[in-house]
Amino acid sequence: MSQGEPMVASFYTAARRIKTLIGELNGTRLPGGPYSITQVVIAVAVLGLGLTLMQSHLISTGLGLFDIAIVLGSAWGIAWIAGKLPHTKRNPLWVINDAFAATVAPAKGKVAGEVFSLRKPHQAKSLMMTDQTPEYRASADPAPDVDPAPEPEVSPAVDPGRSLVQLPDPATPFQNLLARINSNG
Fold it and tell me: Which residues have C-beta within 8 Å of that of residue 88, sequence separation ≥ 6?
């Protein structure tokens, strides 16, 4: 690329899909419109299903005009609800499949292919053994190859005015440290 050539950059964005809308029929504005093609297809399907069920007397109140009003109102209401659903680029068959899968899936989901379930609450019990408990002392075996260390001989105090005091075995290292500090002065 030489110095005189301009640099060209191209940017591509996803095309925005605008729904095709039907706002008038034979020059007359549709009430509640404009409607998308999806809404029109859904309204025609619900209207056809409702009229078929009404003629076969599967659903009917016995009042012809009231039945027709119910079918027309149901078709318009379901089409209106369909217009409020978000418009995505997903295939409608996959949306139906995912909705069905979500209704039959276990409530708590699956882990490693198995239905997840929590264990019932239970009390956790444990046994803590320290070197202070008799059970630990009985189970602790001295090493067979190690000879016990000989007891150091206590020499008489250097200071003749000071007497030797026998201290009890402290239970913790902190008490041992306090005993040494108190005995030294």
Answer: 95
In a domain, 118, yes or no: no
- pLDDT, one tens digit per residue, over 31-64 is 777 888 888 899 999 999 998 888 887 777 778 7
Average confidence (pLDDT) over 126-137: 63
d(CA 165, CA 182): 11
Cα 134 to Cα 180: distance, rounded to the nearest angstrom: 26
pLDDT score recorded for residue 97: 87
- What is the number of structural domains in the chain? 1
> What is the rounded distance in angstroms from the CA atom of residue 170 to the CA atom of residue 177?
9
Residue 91 is part of which domain span?
21-103
Cβ of 82: how many Cβ atoms within 10 Å?
17
- Domain assignment present for 155: no
| Residue 91 within any structural domain of the chain | yes
Give whole-number Cα distances, 116 to 34, 108, 111, 112, 113, in Å. 47, 6, 6, 9, 9
Q: What is the pLDDT of residue 46?
A: 93
Strand 110-111, strand 35-36: pairing: unpaired
